[in-house]
Write a structure and sequence with these properties.
seven-stranded mixed beta sheet; Butyryl-CoA Dehydrogenase, subunit A, domain 3; disordered N terminus; globular; Butyryl-CoA Dehydrogenase, subunit A, domain 2
Length: 389
């Protein structure tokens, strides 16, 4: 930790080092999952450990002190954290990756923002209004689902600047943390520890150089990760959270099955042939989903390294793989919860938290089942008209 004698320069700076550090931290994070959920935010000491582990620098390029991790390693880090605690994984996913929405900022602004231990929170949903003025852009808006906003050093909100020929013109504004008002709204069924509150600003003046037009402005830095369209990369990361939850649920039910004797059963749950068969199915589905995600991530990364354009078919493959993997994860957690019987419904059971967390993940628009409609239309060689895919 920075105040515990570990210098910033000594912190983890390689992707392999981040993964090893996360694996070391996971047991202690898992032991405090209930505490994280009850607090509805990340405890400061765990946040400091994640900073020291390099988690929030995972995707940043080496030029900015980051680990410059490839897509597949990033998924492994996120899954390992989600196996311990889904909220922790979600915070790291957002805090380490949301800067990609800001890659179009002027280079000087980007360099100034991403120094030291920057942690990002922001919302892509254009819930703000933005108007140019002589002193900069005037921004008013209210944004929801701002995961990790309470500890972020960089906060942004997407805005609707206008409509040209029927096409919405978007502009992201980057705020100072002291310019935003965080509303305590995060009382939800799952991912409770992410602190994904609403925040608002009222006629805040944002310098022009602290704004960018997403999906339009060219990135000011050149590294493979920024060449991947965010709607292609982020669903894979979200699905990895789901798979980590599923792996954790299998860990939980296998542990429970050693001692739990179901009503009228002749022995522990682990000796039940039905349980054994369903467990084998679930474990195999998990490996298949993980394999698909990592194969897809490798292909996506190769395209970025080659500087090749992403075709609609490749985007559809990534999006549909993420949806399929997330749905497999849900089925696996449902199996584990159901197998736990009455034990699963108690507040102290991790299975009920895994169940709520994985179903919360499914509500993100990037992995909702409706995604398959667009992906299927692309596979069927039909025209699609979507702004973000």
């Amino acid at each position: 930790m920075s105040d515990g004698g570990v210098a910033v320069a000594a912190r983890t700076t390689t992707s392999e080092g981040v993964l090893r550090a996360v694996e070391d931290l996971s047991p202690s994070i898992g032991a405090r999952a209930a505490e994280i959920e009850a607090a509805r935010r990340m405890p400061r000491d765990i946040l400091d450990d994640l900073i020291d582990a390099g988690c929030f620098r995972l995707l940043l390029p080496e030029s900015h002190g980051g680990a410059s991790a490839d897509a597949s390693t990033s998924l492994a880090v996120i899954e390992a954290l989600a196996r311990a605690d889904a909220s922790t994984a979600w915070i790291v996913m957002i805090g380490s990756g949301a800067w990609l929405d800001l890659a179009g900022l002027p280079r000087a602004t980007f360099d100034a923002l991403f120094t030291d231990d920057a942690i990002v929170a922001g919302v892509f949903n254009p819930a703000g209004s933005i108007e140019p003025g002589v002193d900069g852009y005037h921004v008013t808006g209210r944004w929801s689902f701002a995961s990790g906003c309470e500890h972020a050093s960089v906060i942004y909100g997407n805005c609707l600047e206008g409509v040209v020929d029927g096409v919405p013109q978007l502009r992201i504004a980057v705020f100072r943390p002291e310019d935003v008002v965080i509303e305590d709204t995060w009382r939800v069924s799952g991912l409770q520890g992410t602190g994904s509150h609403h925040f608002h600003v009222d006629d805040v003046v944002v310098p022009v150089e602290h704004t960018t037009a997403p999906l339009a402005d060219e990135p000011s830095i050149d590294t493979p990760i920024v060449r991947i369209p965010p709607p292609t990369l982020f669903p894979l990361m979200i699905a990895s959270v789901a798979l980590g939850i599923a792996q954790g649920a299998l860990d939980d039910i296998v542990d429970l099955a050693q001692e739990k004797v179901p009503l009228l059963a002749g022995g522990p749950l682990a000796t039940s042939p039905l349980f054994q068969s369903e467990l084998a199915d679930a474990a195999t589905e998990l490996r298949a989903a993980r394999g698909l995600l990592h194969d897809t991530a490798a292909a996506v990364w190769a395209t970025a390294v080659d500087r090749s354009p992403y075709t609609l078919e490749q985007r559809a493959e990534a999006r549909s793989a993420a949806v399929w993997a997330t749905e497999r994860a849900v089925a696996i957690v449902d199996f584990a919860y159901r197998s736990g019987g009455g034990s699963s419904i108690y507040a102290e059971s991790p299975l009920q938290r895994r169940l709520r967390d994985v179903h919360a993940v499914t509500q993100h628009f990037l992995v909702k089942r409706e995604t398959l409609v667009t992906a299927g239309a692309i596979f069927a060689r039909q025209d699609v008209d979507v702004m973000v895919f």
